[in-house]
User: Fold these one by one.
Assistant:
Number 1:
Amino acid sequence: MEITKICCIGAGYVGGPTMAVIAQKCPHIQVTVVDLNEERIAAWNDPNTDNIPIYEPGLSEIVATARGRNLFFSTAVDQAIDEAQIIFISVNTPTKTYGKGKGMAADLKYIELCARQIARVAKDNKIVVEKSTLPVRTAEAIKSILDHTGNGVQFQILSNPEFLAEGTAVTDLLQPDRILIGGDTTPEGKKAMEALVQVYSNWVPTDKILTTNVWSSELSKLTANAFLAQRISSVNAMSELCEKTGADINEVAKAIGMDSRIGPKFLKASVGFGGSCFQKDILNLVYIAKSYGLHEVADYWEQVIIMNDHQKRRFSNGIVQTLYNTVSDKKITFLGWAFKKDTNDTRESAAIFVADDLINEHAKIAVYDPKVSSKKILEDLNYLATRSPEHNQDSVTSYRDPYEACQDAHAIAILTEWDEFIHYDWQKIFDAMQKPAFIFDGRNVLDAAQLRAIGFVYQGIGS
Ligand code: NAD
Ligand code: UGA
């Protein structure tokens, strides 16, 4: 089947960049990204592509090339579904906040709404692709909804999880380690998989396109995230032991990473992983294991989250202890609020939880992040609902200038590893701070020796 029209439901961190790259690499395919969120779609259509809603290096250039040619952003969901041969579902699948599975299971209400909308609108056969990260066997539920339309339309459900990381989304999409496509082993299922393989093979070498059964594909995505997060919790666990023993976590990580069986990536000790997916996907995995009665499997993976929470709390406790057991009314400056560099995404960022702990201790938090707005910072704290919005507003101030943010501070905490922090005039910052001046480097990005030479009291993770 020659694919000429694709629709993607969900113009978020995955749907937007993924479809922009498909459109760039497949000029013969019309790609329409739809969303219910009018503000988000308006931002994707902003004539100045620097104002698109998601910051990713290289993305605005791709959008500038393809938008209006074969890439479209729209709120006309029904029309896009009707016209497309392939429909990607790329909506959010957050942790449930109510009912059965609250705090653990993935909330599939948005997925189900999409399936029902497709069932209602489709007039001819469609390939429906799960792009969102989903619990294993979700395709069964989607199929059941789609197959009960009674209008004779045939649907093929494929699983095609996305492995991009934020901050490097464009490179990850242009040169993926692999593309995973799961589908039915029936002739129709194989034909659908082949159609999607053809789309990707416009730029991805075919030996990197892996086809599997649907359940393997769905479960591989949760497994990949669990393994990645597990490495971070493992190295963070060792960072605490390093602090007690005089070993240095960076040296330990380097030494073990040179073992080709372990490898060097994802061994950076930190204040804890954030982001919208690691915690959500592991909790979901734990929930699935429990629902099959596999309690040892569930406990094993839950430990990754327990360790991560411990690491965040350990960081904020360390600040309070070092500042003579009180941070009350002390200005503590956060450099970085995003969950990692090169993104404006703050979901589950460690900064939010560290700030929450310190505000409980009556600290005054100053924040500088090159890409995160003051509105977003307050929204993140208010979302935790640990205190009134007025209290948060009184406790946090955001700055557009990092030097001003650090002026008169008792301590600086590095919460995101933005490259620009390395190039600051640290002598100037030191001179303007209260003394003794402390730096808590939650990402081990600064030069400890240089900072100590200036006079800072420097504490990195695991050193
Ligand atoms: P997001 O919240 O940024 O975007 C989801 C979008 O879907 C929102 O704009 C929302 O308005 C829209 N939406 C929800 N229901 C809708 C409906 N019925 N019709 C139309 N639009 C609807 O989420 P995201 O970060 O892009 O994540 C999407 C999925 O991809 C999740 O399952 C996530 O686990 C997975 N994922 C995310 C990443 C990442 O880096 N963010 C990477 C890999 C996989
Ligand atoms: C992660 C995965 O890397 C992607 O493959 C996956 O597609 C995505 O989740 C998803 O499913 O959403 P992402 O969360 O965007 O991507 O970013 P990562 O680079 O994985 O970083 C996650 C967190 O771990 C960040 O807070 C980062 O600072 C932290 N991290 C990462 C460490 O603390 N140490 C490391 O060595 C690496």
Number 2:
Amino acid sequence: MIIVQNYIAGSFETEIETIDDIGPATGEKIAKIPRTLDANASISAAKEAKKDWANRTIEERAQWLGKIADAIEQRKSELAKVESLDTGKPIEVALNVDIDRCIKNFRFFSEYHTHISENEYRMDDATNFILRKPMGVVALITPWNLPLYLLTWKLAPALLMGNTVVAKPSELTPLSAHALCQILEDIQFPKGVVNMVHGFGHEVGQSIIEHPDIDAISFTGGTQTGRIVASIAAPMFKKLSLELGGKNSSIILDDADLSIAIPGVVRAGFLNSGQICLCGSRILVHASIYDEFMKEFIPQVNNFSIGPVISENHMQKVLSYIELAKEEGGEILTGGEQSGENGFFIPPTVITGLEPDSRCSTEEIFGPVVTIHTFQSDEEAIAIANNTDYGLAGSVWSKQRGMAVAEKIESGMIWVNTWLHRDLRVPFGGVKDSGLGREGGRWSLEFFSQPINICVMD
Ligand code: TXE
């Protein structure tokens, strides 16, 4: 049994009350985590540590990011093991997708600091100097689907820009964040700069958001929770970044190269058991190629190996959407029921026959479930893709018209003839109910800092 502790001011601390952490592959208890009720101690620690960390040079902070990347690299198989245990994802996915990306997150921002230009604007009689100052103490609230990947995606730029941090990982997947704190301790990372608190979102999570000494909040999670976070942060004028849910379309036009589109669309639908906000869970296929597409698509779906979904509750939510699909007139072509004796497994599930505006086709299910729809023209495909409250991502598969269709999709990110092909310099984030703000490259650096103008007369 793993015992997870809070990490505050460089020391590991327990709480009297604990929460059980259940492994989704077995349904058994794998760890105990502290049920922290308030984040006051961690926020005070971060506030104290800010005095030193914010005053170090950006080069020194960048060097620390490099050291963290090295230390993660040395312990990558151990980290992949805990990530796989906690999320149920196959160990190769944990290693090659999750932990690999954690290392890249730190390395990328460690090297990217040289891109920050010291802006100067000349006037006839004066010069404006724009400085980038840290925000202060920032809150990082992260979900369970890509636990360390998403935490480090926020942590690296926050540290680079001179902020100190209070982080709260999901109570469903606390293990890799705890392991990261052990790494920070081992490499003698300055105490109090990163503080990690564990517990329920509505308890310790909310106490972080509400605290007057938190200067900025970077949140990734569900749209409903994002609404609560925004309603607390807005009247306090806290800087806020929200990466929320998605209901993304994979659009296969009649001129698509099916030999790349089909495996691409299968991966987009089912990677991480469909539990990535970028997953393409609505598949729109041109009617003229539907039969040819489906003949190859279903066998590839059945061959795609996935892990469980994250929890009993989440499995019930996904299964209830499959029941709803049947009530809405859908036909289950493959999958559709819980599988296995233990754990929370649902095989890849494909549903046809639903109206494009049905609930199952427009609401986020966040599991291994895709719906298939046909269309007759590019305009119709675009209209279906845009007919959802979300606007995060999507993909278009076409030899000729990918860019033209992509431009008309209401979403923050679109891939053409690929999916989840990431350049860490580009903006990441959604429109509509998928969120607020952008992460990535200079957008992350801007979020975690504030520009100050000093105008000096000649
Ligand atoms: O996430 P929550 P949940 C979607 C997906 C999923 C749904 C709900 O559709 O089914 O959201 O998932 C913390 N104040 N995504 O309920 O609750 C919480 O402890 C402060 C999409 O598991 O949003 C966790 O650390 N914090 C998403 C984090 O918020 C609070 C990934 C996210 O959990 C809080 C996950 C509060 N009041 C789910 N309440 C994506 N965009 O990738 C909760 N938290």
